Amino acid sequence: MFLCRNSQVTHFDLPWGKRPMSRPVRTRRGGPALLLAVVLSSVAACSSAPPPPSALENTDGAAPSSAPAAGPSASASALAVPITKTLADGTKVTTVVRNGQVIVTTTKNGKTTTTTKSATGTSSAPTRTTAARSTLFTPAEDKIGITSNSITMCAHAALTYGAAFNTSDADLNVFWSAVNDNGGVYGRKVAVTYENDDYKPTTAVEAARKCKAKGIFLLLGGIGFDQIPAVRNWAEENRMLYMHHTATVKGTAGQKFSFAPLPSVERTGEAFGQLYESKYHGKKIGIIKRDGENWEPGVVAFKSYIASHGDGKMVVAETAVPQNKGNYTDDVLAMKNNGAEVVWIWDNALDAAPIVKQIRAQAYNPHMMLFPFNLTAQTLDEDAFNPALDGVAMFTAYTNGEYGGPFASYADDMKLFEAQYKKYRPNVDLAGVGGDLLFLNWSAQKALYAQFLDCGKDCTRNRFVDMLETYNKRPTSSACPLDFTDGNHRRGTEDLVFMETYRDARGKAAWRNTKMCVGRG
Questions:
Q1: Separation CA 169–CA 107 (nearest Å)
Q2: Residue ranges of the domains in the chain?
Q3: CA-CA distance, 461 to 183, in Å (whole number)?
Q4: Residue 17: pLDDT band by 50, 70, 90 thresholds?
Q5: Rounded to an integer, what distance in angstroms lies between the CA atom of residue 271 and that of residue 77?
Q6: Which pLDDT tens digit goes with each residue over 315-364?
Q7: CB–CB of 257/234 below 8 Å?
Q8: Strands (E), 178-283
Q9: Percent of the chain whose pLDDT exceeds 90
Q10: Helix/strand/coil (H/E/C) assignment for every residue in 441-458
């Protein structure tokens, strides 16, 4: 996820060290990856009792405004999860669920009104429940993992690479701690646990089995091009509702139980082609790529895109590397000796940093395109510049404490994220190498929270599927718009974010957005 946002974080998963938890949260000792990079969302309520409106949803019939949502009001508790939207006429509506109550604050023409009602409904009159459209799950399967007072989920994620990010499992469920402390989701407390997939397909399937044995509502899949296809096949065979990070379109024909809110591997490779064409059209390019069948479709899509723009012959060198190769001298020399003016590093963040360093060590300074994480930028420091690095991501950039410029459109999410971490995990360094990944994870959880609100107090698995299959909106300010209705009801967006390295206010190498939510158009 995490590891994507799209954390859910994008091509590596994160393990964790151990830190004492500030309060009881149901996580697995040993820690999960920032898996919720999957940016989730939903549409109309599933219950006759109307739920609180979700992010950017217009409840009075006016068209949603394209203006950034306002930040949480001064009166809103930092522990609650306010959702603020701005309507077309300038009206601001903030909704928060606190202590079992739905509190809606509306500000229009300088006048503010507040209404409060029970989140679960207090009327003694009988209510009618509309039947779910989906019949994917049998009656015996439909309510697994969801009760009147709990929602249980589990994630498979690589817990093998944690120390590099200075992040523990206790740091991941901050958002759910705030939700649970403020009444949960219609009175249901949210519990998320994690199983190690070791960044390997076979281990990931075993992790999925362990998750299923816990009686979960939803299986979540963290970052990992190689693990997800194997778990998708398992989910289909085992009738498990599965929400996962970026993976190939290849292999998904006929599958019904898996949903991918983020762009595919193929679409991501194509987006790197768009970045290349927008900045480096006509320049010689070399490719250092991960050697793997689940990575290759992205390279094919990249080549196809630049060929369609007249640059098919600009690829002058291409090398395939195994995971954790370490010494990339031969690969770097292949790029340099063939005159590559641009190098595309199609590999995970942990491997990208040494590749860049070894390129710089050869007195070779091409433009470079790669996945943008603060871990990579801060590790490289001066090597992240001259020229600046280019990135393509399934998520928006995060720099602690910076709310203007490229961050302004989702400053409300950033401020709430920082306020909740200050309360629940005050010792976490959000300005460090793991801050952007925690924000990615948090943003995905906020979107999932809005989705459960939309599903309503009568939510079941089939109702959850109903929402996804008809969903078309922006779930929260730090996410790109999602549309599950456009041709494939199991994939939600084609949008990615272009970034570049810069020096932040603290003098650290970091990433900032240059183009938001870039689609195929």
A1: 39
A2: 266-393+500-518
A3: 22
A4: very low
A5: 39
A6: 999 999 998 899 999 999 999 999 999 999 999 988 999 999 999 999 99
A7: no
A8: 189-196, 218-221, 242-244, 258-259
A9: 63
A10: HHHHHHHHHHHHHHHCCC
pTM, entire model: 0.80
Query: Which fold, 266-393+500-518?
Result: Rossmann fold (3.40.50)
CA distance 325 to 164: 17
- DSSP secondary structure string, 315-383? EEEEEEE-TT----HHHHHHHHHTT-SEEEEES-HHHHHHHHHHHHHTT---EEEE---HHHHHHHGGG
Angle at 393 between CA 392 and CA 395, to 5 degrees: 150
In what order do the strands lie in the sheet containing 390-393? 315-321, 285-290, 342-346, 367-370, 390-393, 496-503, 509-518
Whole-angstrom Cα distance, residue 199 to residue 349?
Answer: 14
Gyration radius of the chain over CA positions: 22
Q: Beta strand 482-483 with 472-473: parallel, antiparallel or unpaired?
A: antiparallel
Query: What average pLDDT does the segment 290-308 reach?
Result: 97
Q: Name residue 312's amino acid.
A: G
Of the candidates 120, 81, 198, the one whose C-alpha atom is nearest the C-alpha of residue 449 is 81
Output DSSP code: residue 188: B
Closest CA to 375 of 162, 169, 165: 165
Tokens, residue 306: 């630049």
Decide if 119 contacts 187 (C-beta within 8 A): yes
Least confident of 29-33, 156-160, 342-346, 439-443: 29-33
Model pLDDT for residues 49-106, shown as the tens digit of each residue = 333 333 323 333 333 333 333 333 333 344 456 666 666 677 777 777 665 667 888 8
